[in-house]
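Morning!

As promised:
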Amino acid sequence: MFNHTNCDEKNENLDNLTLAKFLKYNCQTTHDSVDNLVMSVKPFDTPENYIRFLQLQAIFHKIVDDIYKNPNLNQKIEGLSELARYDSVIQDLQDLNTSEKAIKTPLPQLSGAEILGWLYCAEGSNVGAAFLFKDAQNKLGLGAEYGARHLAPHADGRGKHWRDFVAQLNTLSLTEEERTAALKGALDAFAFYKIIVREIFELK
Ligand code: HEM
């Protein structure tokens, strides 16, 4: 569901793109396959499905939690640690009287600038979460204070917060190798998300 029509950057030299545009441009197709896969398991149709969705989110946000709390990155991206959502996912699970689920898939080991791609993926997921938050409210009666805390918008509003975050991400000065590693991280993050959707929702 990325906005393909606004991708003027398609005509630009990829090397001249900001980091966020570079990641967006190269992740669109993968993102849309994740979006379709998640919607196909109907996460908001029943409380049981939503609990599985929370367990999936808990795994993903646990992996990126250390990135949000990385001291070096926090010096460069103001307020980064406060954006971590792992604790809110755990609270959402507790609201519904349930907890995290162990999975068989080994957790990925992230290194170097790959973490920037994982961070882009995790923080960007809150942009599209507007739709998910509405479904959690309308179909399941959940909200920012109960059960869907981690899907709630940032106090600044989703759009403004995302623009501010992207502006900070784009100030990081990366070598070509680091840029490539960041993209690998983002693609790995989306790919890992798909693997855990399949495991948690027991898809073939
Ligand atoms: C059913 C699930 C999902 C839906 C409906 C959805 C939908 C969307 C929408 C509508 C946008 C805004 C696109 C734009 O303005 O151009 C977006 C952005 C984004 N989503 Fe998703 N998304 C879903 C799941 C995910 C997941 C699971 C992840 C990560 C694991 C993710 C990562 C991102 C990222 C990184 C962006 C920012 C793109 C950018 O502007 O650079 N999304 N999503």
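Residues 1-3, 20, 24, 31, 34-35, 38-39, 120-121, 124-125, 127-128, 131, 189-190, 193 surround protoporphyrin IX containing FE (CB under 6 Å).

Hope this helps with the figure draft.
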